Amino acid sequence: MQTQPTTPFGRRPLSLAMVASQAATENFAARPGASEIVVHKWRLFRALTEAKEPLGVTDRALSVLHALLSFHQETALTLPASDSKSAETDAAGPGIVVFPSNKELSIRAHGMAPATLRRHLACLVDAGLIIRRDSPNGKRFARRGQGGAIEAAFGFDITPLVARAEEIENLAEEVRAENRVMALLREKITLTRRDIAKMIATGIEEGVSGDWESFHLRYATLSGRYARNLLHPDLEALASELALLAAEIRKLLETHVEAQNMTANESQSERHIQNQTTNKSDLEPSLRKGRAEPSGFDDQKPGTPSTSEPEILASAAPKPDQKPGTPRTYPLGMVLEACPDILDFASGGISSWRDLATTAAVVRSAIGVSPDAWAQALEVLGEHDTSIMIAAILQRGEEIKSAGGYLRVLTAKARAGEFSLGPVLMALLRGKAAKAARERKRAG
User: Fold this and answer.
1) What is the pLDDT of residues 377-409, one digit of tens each?
2) What does the alpha-carbon distance between residue 17 and residue 23 come to, in Å, rounded to a whole number?
3) Phi, psi (5° rounding) for residue 419?
4) What distance in Å separates the CA atoms of residue 393 and residue 411, rounded to the nearest whole number?
5) In sequence order, what are the residues at sequence separation of 6 or more whose Cβ sits closer than 8 angstroms to the Cβ of residue 149?
6) How much is the pLDDT for 325?
């Protein structure tokens, strides 16, 4: 019988990778029970698709391999019984060789050009997934013996797929595990970023003491590092840094809540003492008389107050209808970062809240806000918040058809206590970060 070809036809060189692939395939075929191994070719191809990066093949090369597999009529890939002795006899058995013409292979590869087809076939050979079994004249064909059985075939030997099936499945499982870890890391980063953004907005809205501008700068810096092409170590480091920042902000908010609870408990204790004092005063006739007949300090007996203690405490306590003034501070740097367009209207730049208010007054007329709407906003929101709102309306100029009507609606909501600026600024910052990410993705 004919000796099995091991070198390529023509000017194609024989590489050490080819020799190693052929040796590994022959060793596999010589193992006892090799002919009993059955591999489902399409399941193996699915694993190859997932493990293409570790194997060093491209998606176009896999398209060519898919076309080659389609020329093997059986779904199962298995070695014929005669192949297990090929290493000892050095004879060429039929093997698992497919021998399509370049024209038919190109058609099944979706019309791939001949030069591209040859390049991807060479890629599959170098990766050790197929072996060239070239005939003396380079043609691909099969020689059949008596009864129609194939005695020798020249083309592409796909036996390495059977020999490396276990390795390919293991590589695919490793890739799947790595993808799961990467997906979990990306999910953790997304949730942590959302938590940080909302905690910063809450801290600013509730007037919690803290360097919120610094927190937001750190958050923006970390968010700027997030991209879809980050590797596992980079994602893990980013997730850890975001988690540390989130823990720091959460600790600050929890401390503020605990301080508020302590203040509420102290107020409740004071009211309890006040009630006890009131009851004692009502039971003492001298104090009741003194309360009915007010007099100066000179006419009082020692130890008798000029005004009853309950009245003093009541006058010091806030009125039920009085709204406690909790100033909400927004860092100027954060406002300018969220609304950078207003800087175009500032001749000398904006370095203080007074500069922002002056520039907002100029922008007000430019975007069509009437003096009446401006005056109402100043009355309800105040100068600082109105200036920030004008900057935000200018930043969203393309989305808002009527700036004056929009400002009136927000003023009415603020008068009803249903509006705050924190979410507006955070939405602008998130939109700016998302736009920058999209630009980086297009550039990269």
Assistant:
1) 888 888 888 889 888 888 887 788 888 888 888
2) 10
3) -140, 140
4) 13
5) 94
6) 39
Mean pLDDT score across all residues of the chain:
78
Nearest to 362, CA basis, from 343, 381, 345, 386: 345
CA distance 344 to 95: 75
Pair of tokens at residue 124:
């599959």
Q: Which residue has the tokens 């709407």?
A: 373
Alpha-carbon torsion, ordered 225, 230, 231, 234, to 10 deg: 10
Tens-place pLDDT, residues 15-38: 666 677 777 777 887 888 777 888
What are the Cα distances from residue 224, in Å, to 106, 220, 229?
45, 6, 13
Asked whether 433 and 220 are in contact (CB, 8 A), the reply is: yes
Q: Which of 152, 153, 45 is nearest to 99 (CA)?
A: 153
**Distances from the Cα of 133 to the Cαs of 97, 156, 329, in angstroms?**
8, 6, 77
Q: What is the spatial distance between Cα 114 and Cα 129, in angstroms, rounded to a whole number?
A: 20
- Rounded CA separation 183/191 (Å): 12
Report d(CA 209, CA 230) in Å as an integer: 35
Token code pair at residue 152: 């020798």
The whole-model pTM stands at: 0.57
pLDDT of 90 strictly over 50:
no
Reduced 3-state DSSP string for the chain: CCECCCCCCCCCCCCHHHHHHHHHHHHHHHCCCHHHCCEEHHHHHHHHHHCHHHHCCCHHHHHHHHHHHHCCCCCEECCCHHHHHHHHHCECCCCCEECCCHHHHHHHCCCCCHHHHHHHHHHHHHCCCCEEECCCCCCCEEEECHHHCEEEEEEEECHHHHHCHHHHHHHHHHHHHHHHHHHHHHHHHHHHHHHHHHHHHHHHHCCCCCCHHHHHHHHHHHHHCCCCCCCHHHHHHHHHHHHHHHHHHHHHHHHHHHHHHHHHHHHHHHHHHHHHHHHHHHHCHHHHHHHHCCCCCCCCCCCCCCCCHHHHHHHHCCCCCCCCCCCCCCCHHHHHHHCHHHHHHCCCCCCCHHHHHHHHHHHHHHCCCCHHHHHHHHHHHCHHHHHHHHHHHHHCCCCCCCHHHHHHHHHHHHHCCCCCCHHHHHHHHHHHHHHHHHHHHHHC
